[in-house]
Amino acid sequence: MNEWNKxxxxxxxxxxxxxxxNLIHPHKQAAVKHLVDNRPDWVTHIFIFGSSVHxxxxxxxxxxxxxxxxxxxxxxxxxxSIRYQDLKYDFLYCQDLQDILEYKEEINHVRxxxxxxxxxxxxxx
Length: 125
Fold this sequence. Notes:
globular
């Protein structure tokens, strides 16, 4: 995880959550911690990308999340348990980390964006 997150922006640690949450904009740090703490067992990696990892993020923006694991979608119960307050989410899925890495050179694909700027907040070893 440390190697993946090398060179990412460092934000004010509003909730004293430490690494890797200090790589997420302060408006979303608590929500990301909640998501990681309540992740489904099938999830092997969680990436946060989009505005939540940039200085121009605003509180009303959604949280862009890429989930890697054996399922292609959250169940209703899983979705309910990982959501934080009334925050809006944009979930994307793939089954293997290699599925994301294949797009590292693609500038017009969301998986390429995840490789270039996404923050890994959870990675199962």
